[in-house]
Specification:
This protein is an alpha+beta fold. The protein has helices at 9-38, 66-69, 95-100, and strands at 54-64, 73-85, 101-111, 117-129, 139-154, 158-168, 178-187, 194-208, 211-223, 227-240. The protein has a domain at 51-154 and 190-240: Porin, CATH 2.40.160.20. An 8-stranded antiparallel beta barrel has the order 1-2-3-4-5-8-9-10. Strand 3 (101-111) and strand 4 form a beta hairpin.
């Protein structure tokens, strides 16, 4: 059995007014929410542009001056460098400087064929592109300068002749057996790091977008009681973004 409850007309009008009020409030609310959804985030909350730069790996062959670590030696080296364009960090720099200069750091490790002599060269580097654009769309001439520390040491002592001593047996000197001994002394180069400048000229040849071949002719000038020149020729790959 169903019982019908009468609905007061006053209550019906009150419900109608409440529904109308909610509808009128809902329109601007939905409009505001849509505007907020379409408004971009503030600049401070957005991630900045990606940092551009290049990572380079290389091999090199160098001739070490005898004043650096004893006898003159030829070294086989491997190394890596990271370079970043100045333009993305300086707003007030001259345009030619910002567009052509890269700065970063490098690390080179070298050893002789028999690994008797090892060396390490680490520091900061600046590259300058010598032309405003690539020659023939592919070749980029470069001038470079590195400032850092150079260290070379020998894994074992190196013997050098000192003098010879001759011994004779007692008795008749004419019939005596004469034996000569060569005395030798070890040479231990002084350990430690020395200040080094490394100017260079080179070129970067674009192979495909983001990949280039780089060659450098460098003079690693090590200051040990004066400038010691150590010519170096390097070849490597440059990966950029």
């Amino acid at each position: 059995m169903t019982r019908t409850i009468p609905f007061d007309p006053m209550a019906r009008r009150a419900v109608a007014r409440l529904a109308t009020s909610l509808a009128l409030l809902g329109v601007p609310l939905l409009t505001s929410l849509g505007a907020c959804a379409m408004t971009p985030l503030p600049v401070a909350a957005q991630p900045g542009p990606p940092i551009r730069g290049s990572v380079e790996g290389y091999v090199a062959r160098a001739r070490l001056d005898r004043g650096v670590a004893g006898p003159e030696a030829r070294l086989e080296a491997i190394g890596a460098r990271l370079l970043l364009p100045v333009a993305q960090f300086t707003d007030g720099a001259p345009r030619w400087l910002a567009e052509r200069v890269d700065v970063g750091g490098f690390l080179t490790s070298a050893a002789t064929d028999d690994r008797n002599l090892v060396s390490r060269h680490v520091g900061a580097q600046a590259d300058v592109r010598l032309t405003g654009r690539r020659l023939a769309g592919r070749l980029e001439p470069l001038a470079s300068l590195g400032i850092g520390a150079f260290r070379a040491r020998r894994e074992g002592a190196v013997d050098a002749p000192l003098n010879a001593v001759c011994l004779t047996a007692r008795g008749d000197a004419a019939a005596a057996d004469v034996r000569c001994l060569s005395l030798r002394r070890p040479i231990d180069p002084e350990p430690g790091e020395s200040f080094a400048l490394s100017p260079a000229v080179g070129a970067r040849l674009a192979l495909v977008p983001g990949l280039a071949l780089r060659v450098d002719a460098r003079d690693v000038i090590v200051y040990q009681g004066g400038p010691r020149h150590n010519p170096e020729l390097g070849l490597g790959l440059s990966f950029s973004r």
